[in-house]
Amino acid sequence: RKEVEQDPGPFNVPEGATVAFNCTYSNSASQSFFWYRQDCRKEPKLLMSVYSSGNEDGRFTAQLNRASQYISLLIRDSKLSDSATYLCVVNGQAGTALIFGKGTTLSVSS
Amino acid sequence: GAGVSQSPSNKVTEKGKDVELRCDPISGHTALYWYRQSLGQGLEFLIYFQGNSAPDKSGLPSDRFSAERTGGSVSTLTIQRTQQEDSAVYLCASSIGLAGGDTQYFGPGTRLTVL
């Protein structure tokens, strides 16, 4: 099982749609979880951290299910500018680097 | 404020040559990471520096790859005897350094093309 797995997509949705991405991770000892966004030919940038109780930032909601070892990202009212690749990120063993999933590509069309 | 910077932004080299890629992390960040990303692929972890600890080199793909971090700040990734499969974008990131679980801030990357 890969350490962090994501559905690569692409997810093609119209403006205004709600879209959800899921991610699973293999290390049950992981403590830190993030969603990063990467635009085409750009570097990844932090979208939001994921907290155990779930958290929301505007149109974006992140949830963590430790028992099932999965993380989700919900985007409501999609905008054209949301088109990007969304990377699920989990910390590895203590004192080591974060582990990135391969990303899920979202394309929002008008 | 100043983010992570990398140089050069683009590098074209011939197979067999050595290259050096530079990363300037955010001031005060004790952790520094190198990744590479091939076209259409995810990020591949290469090496991780945390303060004065021995670096985690577990991601380096071969002994042609090495990295150093001088004075706890600037880092240089060196690829010796480059091969065509080394062509990729090499990304550097830094973080405050909380046991590997804190937010990483990425530089714009160096696009390496090996002919």
Please provide a written account of the structure:
- The complex is a heterodimer of chains A (110) and B (115).
- Chain A is mostly beta strands.
- Chain A contains no helices and eleven strands.
- Chain A has strands at 4-6, 11-14, 19-25, 33-38, 45-49, 55-57, 60-65, 70-75, 84-91, 98-100, 104-109.
- In chain A, the strands form two sheets. In chain A, strands 2, 4, 5, 9, 10 and 11 form a six-stranded mixed β-sheet that branches. Chain A has a five-stranded antiparallel β-sheet with strand order 1-3-8-7-6, with no helix packed on it.
- Chain B is an all-beta fold and 115 residues long.
- In chain B, 0% of the residues lie in helices and 46% in strands.
- Chain B contains no helices and ten strands.
- Chain B has strands spanning 5-7, 10-13, 19-24, 31-37, 43-50, 65-69, 75-79, 88-95, 105-106, 110-114.
- In chain B, strands 2, 4, 5, 8, 9 and 10 form a six-stranded mixed β-sheet that branches.
- In chain B, strand 6 (65-69) and strand 7 form a beta hairpin.
- The radius of gyration of chain B is 13 Å and the shape is globular.
- Chain B starts with a strand and ends with a strand.
- The model of chain B has no long low-confidence stretch (mean pLDDT 92).
